[in-house]
Amino acid sequence: PKRAVQRMFEMINEGASVIDIGGESSGPFVIPNPKISERDLVVPVLQLFQKEWNDIKNKIVKCDAKPIISIDTINYNVFKECVDNDLVDILNDISACTNNPEIIKLLKKKNKFYSVVLMHKRGNPHTMDELTNYDNLVYDIKNYLEQRLNFLVLNGIPRYRILFDIGLGFGKKHDQSIKLLQNIHVYDEYPLFIGYSRKRFIAHCMNDQNVVINTQQKLHDEQQNENKNIVDKSHN
């Protein structure tokens, strides 16, 4: 936990305003370590960070705003412990709250609502690379995310608390991930929480500098749009 918290403070000093932390990899063909639980990897880190941040805040009169803390989990019990101890601000759920719909109830705590990231994916780490056929890549994914948003709104979650993640690499080929980024404008009315800086497709397309430059320009233009909020969640 100490090393992880040290890195969190380094990120804050580097200008990070949102920190996303997770304890179970969802990368291709990853097998969870049976010797340590997801909970034991993340909760002690968040508890220690909270303690050290409060210590700093009490010692420094002018303390910069605390960064937004996001927990990357589909685990009901992990998120519940985070909520019960006020450790996080955002639930980043790669299943779009389909793994356990009961987790939606935890987003409402008395007079407080937690924000939630809904991600599009297909299959699991062992099958997702084979599930890449779409009728219309861009709009199939957008329609899915909008359906999940509507479901959460019907269950009492304010729309402004819901963010989208198009799930780059999760059931998408390299060229499909690039196409999604190049068509990111279709989400102009939605806040986005996207991991694009540490993906396999980046290495794949590095030999084609035109693709890299055009895609980077698209993202830059969208991030400069005053109505757009794109957060890259991929940095360590």
From TrEMBL:
Single GO BP term: tetrahydrofolate biosynthetic process
Molecular function via GO: dihydropteroate synthase activity
SUPFAM superfamilies, per the entry: Dihydropteroate synthetase-like (SSF51717)
Residues forming coiled coils: none
Limits of the Pterin-binding domain: 1-236
Any single GO CC term annotated in Swiss-Prot or TrEMBL for this entry: mitochondrial envelope
PROSITE patterns: DHPS_2, PTERIN_BINDING
Protein's name according to its UniProt entry: Dihydropteroate synthetase
